[in-house]
Request: fold
Amino acid sequence: MEPPLDDDLRSAVSGFPEHDSRRDGPFSESPQELSLDPDVLAQELAQELLGDPLDELDSSEPEPSAVAAECDLGLMLLQGGEQPGGREQRMQGLRIFCEHRDPRAVPLLLPLLRASCPILRMSAVYALGRNPSPEAVEPLLALLAGDDNGYVRKAVAWSLGNYPDAPVLNPLIRALQLDIAAVRLWAASSLADAGGTGPAKADPAAAQLLLSLRIDSEPAVRSNSAWGLGRLYADLVEPRQQEVVEALLHTMLSDAESSVRDEARLALEQLEQPDVLERLQTLVDEGLL
Reply:
């Protein structure tokens, strides 16, 4: 189902979220079996990304002065990329702002969302996930709804998790319902952030995650749905909380994939509800876990 990807390409298209301290879902990158649409231009992207600095993001914590200097360099590189033959400079600048936050970068990142090259669009999306801006919401939502490249839409699904106060809930729900698996994977995780701003958003987010937990064909998406439900639990009204508990218990006992069962159990344990923990202990005592 997925076009064959070499290691460089797989690292580049799924590696940005690994360095995000905002959240760590059970599947923070799409496994090899996740499906991608056949028009994703994998061979072209692989050639574009060989040796790309976006593969080499550093997750260590540098000194603030070093970050400031690197951001200054990133701004110069993005501006230099506007000159003929400056694509490599622009890619290096994007790499910097996929890792660091600086509001000065936003005006230089926004035009790249319209770039003809999918690598530039994807990288700009990730950079705007690191550097959220109200001006980016509308073009990001347009890309999620209409970009023909699965890697770009996947990047948007991740980035929108950093825009929880923007009107991203319904677009993420639609992506989780309808898009390819690699996009659904991150839509499930981002829904936990978009829905975590209060009960009004938590309930529709939980309703979709409950449905995806039951019916999605991809184990990684079901796992992220279980994880997201655990994150939303505290913001849900009591009847929905009970529905979440029962759904997670059912998944823990009956899902065909052990990774999904394990994630459902972990989500239940992390609720730290005495009655839930008691039920889990009973299942252990009865030899069902």
Notes: The first helix runs from residue 7 to 15.
